Amino acid sequence: MKTVLITGGASGIGLLCGQCYAKEGENVVLVDINQEALDARVAEIKEYHENVLGICIDIRNYESVKAACKQTFDTFGSIDILINCAGGAEVRIMNAKGKFHEIPIEVYDFGIDVNLKGAMYFDHAAMHYMAQQMSGVIIHLGSITGEEGSSNNIAYAASKSALMNGMTKAIAKAGAEYNVRCCYVAPGPVMTRPAMANMKTLMGRAAETQEIVDLIMYLASDKASFITGSGILADCGRNVMDRK
Ligand SMILES: NC(=O)c1ccc[n+]([C@@H]2O[C@H](COP(=O)([O-])OP(=O)(O)OC[C@H]3O[C@@H](n4cnc5c(N)ncnc54)[C@H](O)[C@@H]3O)[C@@H](O)[C@H]2O)c1
Q1: Atom of ligand 1 nearest to the CA of 114
Q2: Over the stretch 28-58, which tens digit does the pLDDT of each residue have?
């Protein structure tokens, strides 16, 4: 039985990862800042799977991240897969209005802290256990925005680009001697929110959440044992669209 630790596990892609791993019988740990949603989702999973744990923390706090990894290891005896889903575009999350230079700098500090540093904190804390185990897989959630940029979600674009490039490669290098792989999945629009249907793709639709979760679970599985330091852009061809 594997232990899968998922950040941002109370909603969207992270939640569906947790539900799918629970159905496969794995130990599941959902980490999220939203206590109410986390408690409700963990209770739902408990109806069909006993080995699920919810940990409510803010991933911007390294001591909390370290404690979450320790609690996971102490409860289930390993951290086999880490999926860094927590995050999102700072301008949307903070409900900021205006152009880049009009938006307070604190909004961008928040964007970097959640999207980049939160994942770095979890990679660091989880690697401690994965190195002892001599095994593990770390997945980063990138984004098409990390490829194409954004006129006001600057921290989100920069963080996702960093996760997909520098950090996935760096963690793959750091983890290789311990048999720890690191990959990214960079989605285009995913229907975790109705508004995502408005974002254009080459084939004219957003992804069902399951399509992205299937890809994450493939890269985290032994079937992808030869893949590390790289990832997949799953954007339904948005990156090759002709722009007017
Ligand atoms: N949905 C999309 O279209 C899309 C596209 C590209 C990339 N992504 C990426 O995929 C990931 C998941 O997206 P989603 O649509 O499922 O998001 P979501 O908003 O449904 O879920 C994100 C979860 O992260 C949690 N979270 C946010 N800040 C946190 C913090 N500081 N500490 C702990 N938990 C925190 C939220 O409470 C929420 O439950 C994100 O990293 C996102 O950037 C999503």
Answers
A1: 31
A2: 999 999 999 999 999 999 999 999 999 999 9
Task: Kindly list the domain boundaries of the chain, sorted by start residue.
Answer: 3-240
Q: pTM of the full predicted structure? A: 0.98
Pocket test for ligand 1, best of 7, 16, 32, 233 (most atoms within 8 A of CB): 32
SS3 track for the chain: CCEEEEECCCCHHHHHHHHHHHHCCCEEEEEECCHHHHHHHHHHHHCCCCCEEEEECCCCCHHHHHHHHHHHHHHHCCCCEEEECCCCCHHHHCCCCCCHHHCCHHHHHHHHHHHHHHHHHHHHHHHHHHHHHCCEEEEEECCCHHHHCCCCCHHHHHHHHHHHHHHHHHHHHHHHHHCEEEEEEEECCECCCHHHHHCCCCCCCCECHHHHHHHHHHHHCHHHCCCCCEEEEECCCHHHCCCC
User: What's the 8 CA to ligand 1 centre distance in angstroms?
Assistant: 6
Q: Thinking of the domain 3-240, which architecture would CATH place it in?
A: 3-Layer(aba) Sandwich (3.40)
Give residue 177 CA to ligand 1 midpoint distance, Å.
30
